[in-house]
Every structure is written in structure tokens, then in C-alpha cells.
Amino acid sequence: MFPGEDRWYFSREEIDNNSPSRRDGIDLTEETRLRKAYCSFLKDLGRRFKLHQATVATAMVFCHRFFLCQSHAKNDKWIIAAVCMFLSAKVESTPVDLKTLIITSEEILHKKVIAAEQRQGVYEHYKGLVSNGEKLVLSTLNFDLSVDLPFDILIQAMKKFILDEATQGKFPSAAWKFVQDRYETEMVLRNL
């Protein structure tokens, strides 16, 4: 699924019908639910680490790209999402500590704080999975970690087109929300 120059952009039909998850019996509704679940998880991770929106958006794009090529049925979405956040944090120059990422991920997933005496055990249990997941994500993405984010363009457009107080109040928040919500869907993979 890597067609030349526009390697990460596909038609809606290609995404909906050619998904590896679809071949493994996961229907479009379930795949959409899975996408929303890992995006929600990534937003929670981003909040916990106080990461910039660009880091979180990049992690979401990495996840969407990964699951465009790999099946949800054969990969743990939580491990893949954590790996994508780890890689995104590196790419966006906001690195996070692997041990803290693993502990925080587990706390989010299980909705409880992990006791200090259990943290090393949790880290030891998951660090190999995350390390293997990182190799899988990198190879699946063909080491292409380039993501074009619209945040800078949106800021420039807002400065250019906000002419009065009426547009200043509504346009920026609506535009910003539209852009953010887009990352939670497969739209970041679509050639509109």
C-alpha cells in the first residue's frame, strides 16, 4: 500500500475496503471505534506529559499509518499507540522517558496509580514489548517519520483572515477544533 509520491494518502474506498483489519474480520464500525480508542489514549498521554499538540497529532498519524498497513486483530493497539507516542516525542523534539511512558500508559489503561514498589516490575514486563513494537512500527512505516501538520498554516491563516472582533471570537476556536478532531479519524490518510 505504498503508491509512490503520495504514499500516505488514499481514497476513502481504499482505506475502508483494503484495510488489513477488514481482511481479519474487523468491520469498519469496529475499526473506527478502535481508532478513536487509541487516539483518546494518546490525548491522555499527551496531557499527562504536557506535550505540545504537534507531538500528540504526530503520534496519532503514526498510529493511523501503522494500522493502514497492519491489522488491529494482530497488534495490541495500546502498545502500538505508546510506541507511536515515544517515536513522535523524539521526532517533535519533546522526548519522554521510556519507563515513565510505560508506567503512565498502564495507569491510564487501568485507571489507577501504580505503587512505587510495583513500577520496576511493570517496566520490566513491558519494555521488551515496547522495544519490539518500536522495531515493528518503524519497519511498517518504512522509517518514514515525516508528518505535515497544519498548525503553523492555521495560525498564519487566522492572523491573515481575522478582520474584526466578531470573527476573532468564533473562527479560531472552531478552526482549531476542526483540525484537532481530524487527527482522531482516518481523514489524515485521505486524499480528499
Automatic annotation (TrEMBL):
One of its GO terms (biological process) is cell division. One of its GO terms (molecular function) is cyclin-dependent protein serine/threonine kinase regulator activity. Residues 40-139 form the Cyclin-like domain. It comes from the Eukaryota. Keywords: Cell cycle, Cell division, Cyclin. Pfam families: Cyclin_N. The keyword Cell cycle applies. Gene3D superfamilies: Cyclin-like (1.10.472.10). Belongs to the cyclin family. This is Cyclin-like domain-containing protein.
